[in-house]
């Protein structure tokens, strides 16, 4: 009964389970419910929230049409564009200390320098890349696209990007 309540609604709380049981005329303490769940190999974890719209029929149709369109293109026309950011001021987050003591490390409060990388890759390898100090903005991304367009001036290429904010900026939208 307890595990079934969790299977039916995995966001239910211990008190919620207790209430469901009470509605069935069963009285159990919260600690007993917790123990039973542990014995049944259930543990409390962070919920992964999935938007309902993600798997709507219209979105699935759009994805299917997108895949069909891409499959009709020759591989040499496809160029994937992505960005990544690297923080040069990284340090370990875990350490060792005797039981009861907290491991400490002293470091500068400065958060360090971020470096961003824009890269365009085709199935045959790297096409173009550019490194920036700090984060990339829409204007810099547009300039990257312009450089990429010049490299591929005589070729009919299809650029594939994710849904990052800079890809949708007004500057980039006006260029594309």
From TrEMBL:
A Pfam family per the record: DDE_3
Domain Tc1-like transposase DDE: 77-176
InterPro entries the UniProt entry points to: RNaseH_sf, Tc1-like_DDE_dom
Name of the protein this chain belongs to: Tc1-like transposase DDE domain-containing protein
GO terms of molecular function: nucleic acid binding
Cleaved signal peptide residues: none
Highest classification ranks of the organism: Eukaryota, Metazoa, Cnidaria, Myxozoa, Myxosporea
């Amino acid at each position: 009964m307890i595990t079934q309540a969790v299977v039916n609604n995995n966001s239910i709380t211990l008190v919620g389970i207790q209430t469901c049981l009470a509605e069935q005329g069963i009285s159990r303490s919260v600690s007993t419910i917790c123990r039973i769940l542990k014995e049944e190999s259930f543990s409390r974890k962070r919920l992964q929230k999935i938007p309902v719209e993600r798997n709507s029929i219209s979105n699935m149709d759009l994805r299917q049409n997108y895949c069909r369109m891409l499959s009709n293109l020759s591989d040499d026309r496809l160029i994937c564009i992505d960005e990544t950011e690297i923080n040069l001021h990284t340090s370990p987050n875990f350490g060792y200390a005797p039981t009861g003591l907290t491991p400490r490390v002293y470091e500068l409060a400065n958060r360090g320098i971020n470096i961003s990388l824009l890269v365009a890759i085709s199935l045959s390898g790297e096409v173009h890349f550019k490194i920036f100090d700090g984060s990339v903005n829409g204007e810099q991304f547009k300039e990257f696209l312009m450089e990429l367009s010049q490299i591929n001036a005589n070729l009919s290429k299809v650029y594939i990007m994710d849904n990052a904010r800079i890809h949708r900026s007004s500057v980039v939208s006006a260029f594309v």
